[in-house]
Write a structure and sequence with these properties.
Strand 23 and strand 24 form a beta hairpin. The strands form 3 sheets. A 9-stranded parallel beta sheet has the order 1-4-7-10-13-16-19-22-25. It has a 9-stranded mixed beta sheet with strand order 3-6-9-12-15-18-21-23-24. 5% of the residues lie in helices and 32% in strands. The termini are far apart. The chain is globular and about 45 Å long. The protein has 200 residues and is mainly β.
Length: 200
């Protein structure tokens, strides 16, 4: 087993108060702030930024350019201590952004075994279940809830306070871009809908 010092690039910035688990790899030019917890066997790629409030599970893989636990893009945020929590074995691809919570819920949660593809944005106070897949450039506004096993395909935008059981109804009222969705309990079926990518 490699020593922890051998798995963290000397070109990475790690705050001395950050709690780093065993067998964590942190590549060059990554930044890890002080109020951060990273679980065992996690890989942090180059140029990843992990801000205060990040709680990252075990076996997570975070690809270059991702930003975890930045402050919310919400005018009511007043600097309160909140978190962004990433579950075990979740994969976060390039340029994904996950903002931390506000005083409304106090946290943003991405569950276990999720896949967030490149350029996904998860806003403050969102709650994602386990085994969720968000394809490239999906954007979730604040307070969105996505349950276990849901899949949103590329370029879908979801407005604030939407729950995923409402998404098929919303899609059915829209036109233009083709969107596919898997929902819990419907693993054998697939919605093939012509829909706007803006779910409001």
């Amino acid at each position: 087993m490699l020593r922890k010092a051998d798995m963290i690039s000397p070109l990475a910035y790690i705050h001395p108060n950050a709690k780093i688990g065993n067998d964590v790899t942190i590549e060059a030019f990554a930044s890890v702030y002080g109020d951060v917890v990273i679980g065992d066997n996690t890989w942090i790629g180059p140029n990843v930024t992990i801000f205060d409030g990040a709680r990252i599970g075990s076996g997570v893989r975070i690809f270059p350019g991702a930003v975890i636990s930045a402050i919310p893009q919400d005018l009511k945020f007043a600097g309160e201590q909140t978190t962004a929590e990433i579950g075990n074995n979740t994969v976060i691809r390039e340029m994904v952004t996950v903002n931390r919570g506000t005083s409304a819920l106090g946290k943003t949660i991405v569950g276990n075994n999720c896949l967030l593809m490149a350029y996904v944005h998860i806003a403050h106070d969102c709650m994602l279940g386990n085994h969720v897949i968000l394809a490239n450039s999906v954007n979730l506004a604040g307070h969105v809830t996505i349950d276990d096993w849901a899949i949103l395909e590329g370029y879908v935008g979801v407005s604030q306070f939407v729950r995923n059981e409402l998404i098929p109804l919303l899609l059915a009222k829209q036109e233009f871009a083709r969107t596919f969705l898997h929902l819990p309990g419907q693993h054998a079926s697939r919605f093939h809908l012509w829909a706007s990518t803006a779910l409001v």
